[in-house]
Specification:
With 116 residues, the chain is of the alpha/beta class. It is built from 1 helix and 9 strands. A hairpin with a 2-residue loop joins strand 1 and strand 2. The chain starts with a helix and ends with a strand.
Length: 116
Amino acid sequence: MRRRLLLALAGTGLLGLGLGRAQAAPREIEITAQRFHFTPNVIALTAGEPVLLKIHALDFTHGFYIPDLDQRIDLIPGRVVTLSITPVNPGKLHFLCDNFCGDGHEGMDGVFEVSA
């Protein structure tokens, strides 16, 4: 009986250890897409920090593409689209609109500046 009690308590203690390690919620960043720019278009991030991008288009179906992460989504006007990223290395990660949206489209880009 005593042995069962000790095993039960030990098992409960082990289970409790896992409960204290809940991950923090990702940082949320809102981005707006509008011909012919993203706002904000320069965003500071920290390597290893999970980030949830909440992106919405105001006027057109824009694309949102991060070539170095091979991440791409369509941005439909009136909808908030989410994209989860976790930059691994310090440096710059460029993003751009990859749906042609008219004259000025080639300047619709931005950068994540990732620090250590």
